[in-house]
Amino acid sequence: MIPEKSYDIIVIGAGPAGSTAATYAAQRGKSVLLIDKKKDLGVPLQCGGFLPHIETLQELIPDAELPFTLEEYPSSCVHATTSHQRFIAPNGLSKGFEVQGDALDRRRFDKHLAAVAAKAGAHLLIATTVLEVAGTRVTMDGAFGRYEIQGKVIIGADGPNSIVAASKGILRDPDPMGISTAFEYELSGVDVDKESVEMYFGKDYVPGGYAWIISQGGDRANIGVGIREALFAEHMCARDYLNRFMYEHPIASEKLKEGTVVSVISGLVPVGGAPKITATKDTLIAGDAAGHLIATNGGGISTAMVGGKIAGESAADFLEGKCKLEEYDSRWRAQMGMEIRTAVYVRKLMDRLMLSDSMMNMAIKTISPAQMKSIQCGQLPDPVKKTLQKLNMGMG
């Protein structure tokens, strides 16, 4: 398509956050341009694609107004549905809790969300790279040509290394422990538990992080590691840890080692929380760009979409003279800021424990399934807090 010369709102990034922002802004009658550098939306994949069902999301972020697209998406976007989550300690001890969720086909899911935005009236421009953001003027180049487009509001939903955030001087915490590398394989020819999401711990396989197995139905699964580069052993990279997990882990390898890798997935996961500001007088950031993610599990689809909804609505309100654009920052924090902050605090408590197999064995033995679910959701009831603090104190 050939874009117009100007739009009310330019959204950069057509992932879950960007497409949701575009949908809600376009539904308010605003002219919206939605841009993405990918030639094929959803490809390459950059996350495991696990999305809890709506009831769990309401527990996870109880104050959030969930976008309708979190409740309504086609069954064709779902690889498999799970009902259980299981933690496996370094010594093999297993403990879990019930949680309903879908393993998404992100290729179809991301395309679906973009199509919803287009149906609402947003103009979609894929295979287009943003070269510069200067104020609210965006310079871009791609498959459909080179353009300079003027907007009134810019929404940056362009990931952890956001060009939009950088253009406005919005910087994340430089702590290297605040960025995790997710490296994953999609496998065929494996026989894994189809009802459960499994999370494995152990410093030899994922120091300071965890590995996972998520069934995609049939004989397929997504496996991966989430690990901070600062914790890599010498001459090791994320791929090496995933290979070690797949072929050498005493439990997981029995399920995985005969599998065939049909897709490689990688991406950065911002687990350090949100920057101090996420809005300026003419620009908003949402999704991974804004740290809209639960740091204890790396899950960010739902929170990104909540942030996108608030971004789209706030931009529309601003253009209608109902608010200053900077109010977006307080709006999203009111709906899910506490959960995001708490998850970062819990992640930091868990960081030390995950570097010690003996302490992770003790933690998984000590913590109840209900408490595990709280930790995974980034929540910190007093008994959980006291347990984690006591275990950390025991490490000296």
What is the topological layout?
Blueprint: E1 6-12, H1 16-27, E2 32-35, E3 50-52, H2 54-60, H3 68-71, E4 78-88, E5 94-104, H4 106-120, E6 123-125, E7 128-134, E8 137-142, E9 145-156, H5 163-167, E10 179-188, E11 196-200, E12 210-215, E13 221-227, H6 238-248, H7 252-256, E14 260-270, E15 283-285, H8 301-319, H9 327-353, H10 357-366, H11 369-376, H12 382-394
Parallel strand pairs: 1-2, 1-9, 2-6, 4-11, 9-15
Antiparallel strand pairs: 3-5, 4-5, 7-8, 8-9, 10-13, 10-14, 11-12, 12-13
Helix pairs in contact: 1-4, 1-8, 8-9, 9-12
Q: In short, what is this structure?
A:
The chain is an alpha/beta fold and 396 residues long. It has twelve helices and 15 strands.
How much is the average pLDDT?
92
Spatial order of the strands in the main sheet? 3-5-4-11-12-13-10-14
CATH third-tier fold name of the largest domain: FAD/NAD(P)-binding domain
Query: C-alpha Rg, in Å?
Result: 21 Å
Count of structural domains: 3
Low-confidence stretches: none
Record field, number of beta strands: 15
- Tally of helical runs: 12
Element string (H = helix, E = strand): EHEEHHEEHEEEEHEEEEHHEEHHHHH
The CATH architecture of the largest domain would be 3-Layer(bba) Sandwich
Text of the CATH class of the largest domain:
Alpha Beta
Task: Quickly give the structural class.
Answer: alpha/beta
Terminal Cα span: 61 Å
Q: Report the sheet-strand fraction.
A: 25-35%
Name the quaternary structure.
single chain
**DSSP helix fraction:** 25-40%
Shape: globular
